[in-house]
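Trying the structure run again after the queue cleared.
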Amino acid sequence: MTIVLDTNIWVLAAFWRRGKPRRLVDLLGESKPQPVILMDSWLLGEIFQTFEHIRRRYRLSQPEVTVAIEQIKKRTTWVTVTSTVTGSRDVSDNPILALAKDGRADYLITGDKDLLVLRQIGKTKIIKPAQFLAILSST
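Done. Tokens:
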């Protein structure tokens, strides 16, 4: 199984210990076989920018952000994205759709309504964390 986790999932999992995104990320590390989690330069950059914003706002230390980013890098598989996708009503979401397409993701997990409304793009199903948790628990 190949998946993409949207920025909002990574951020909630890293900084808020309760909730479905954190439980999902924890379960991904425990599940057998482990799903392949896709990453590209655009998504990592967006995650880093969001982490930096949170760090400054809540006065977190730089090492906390660095450790979180390094953990994400270790858990993901790098994809070189060459496609351009124009499926989202929010054009700033199109790069994550291109990652899902080029990485041949089975699922894109997100809380973003602009992505969720699409339901599927190509073979990639776009679902909420709770839906993916149900899929993990049934396998």
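Residues 56 and 62 are 9 Å apart (CA to CA). Worth checking whether this holds up in the mutant runs.
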